[in-house]
Amino acid sequence: MEFEHIPVMLFPAVNALNIKRDGIYVDCTVGGGGHSYEIASRLSDKGRLFCFDRDSEAIEAAARRLEAFGNRVTFINRNFADVSEVLGEIRIDGAIIDLGVSSYQIDNPERGFSYIKDAPLDMRMSRGDGKSAYDVVNYYSKEELIRILRRYGEERFAPKIASYIINAREKKPVSTTLELAEIVKKAIGASASKDGGHPAKRTFQAIRIEVNGELDAVSPALRALTELLVPGGRLSVITFHSLEDRIVKQTFAELSKGCICPPKLPVCACGRKPVLKLLSGAIVPDDDEIRRNPRSKSAKLRVAEKL
């Protein structure tokens, strides 16, 4: 199966970076290389693009797609949380982060992300490294399962789903995606039809986020990228659910905030200065994009500039 991912909000996200032909840019989640291709095409041979992805298959696919750009592009098979460690003293003119799971990862049954295609429970973006969805489902305590279902899935049926998982695994390990999806469906029962969508969607989201530590890296990475930006450099961040968007919004708000002294103080004593300027509120896909790519429907783009 070819690694394919339709880039969401391609032109709004890349245009927001205000690309300089000789600039240095980072694509923190290269995926299939859609955003990277557009960025690289706007650079001269003096420009540089660093492409990060923890998924080795994504790196291989993007390298093939961007082969024509030669030394203009560097591929790094690492989590974007490691951006400071990798780039060191290099200063950048902009960075883009697409926090969505790629279409390839969802649609490829072997990866174990899908609740509608049967496969071994896995969900690891970095293939073979660390705990898998199987480990979470079969070894987490009931309390831990409830915690992640509530926190990462915002699932109101978390206690009942956790109980059904515990009961099922006492008979035999829950080893496939459809086994887990069926357990969730039975746990929620008739209530599932009231919310629309697949009853296991929130559970699979929660477990995927737990397996990959997705939310843990977002705020530290945004802060690290802000440090690496030159004045006038920009961050372009695409999120796909409220948990991610909340983190991005709050981090941007904190970094764009100046003095936090009590209003009664005649002069500033904290010395705090804003380091980012917010260029817009949340930007959403237009109707045409949603028709072309229904998976873009929940996307939000936020953009900030280094002061």
Query: Which topology of the largest domain does CATH recognise?
Result: Rossmann fold
* CATH superfamily caption of the largest domain: Vaccinia Virus protein VP39
Report the biggest beta sheet as strand number plus sense, adding barrel if it closes: 7 strands, mixed
Number of helices: 14
Distance between the termini: 44 Å
Examine the secondary-structure arrangement and name the CATH architecture of the largest domain.
Answer: 3-Layer(aba) Sandwich
Please compute the radius of gyration using only Cα atoms.
21 Å
Structure summary, number of beta strands: 7
3D shape:
globular
Which parts are unreliable, with pLDDT below 50 for 5 consecutive residues or more? none
Tell me the name of the CATH class of the largest domain.
Answer: Alpha Beta
Order of helices and strands: HEHEHEHEHHHHHHHHEHEHE
Mean pLDDT: 92
Helix/strand-derived category reads alpha/beta
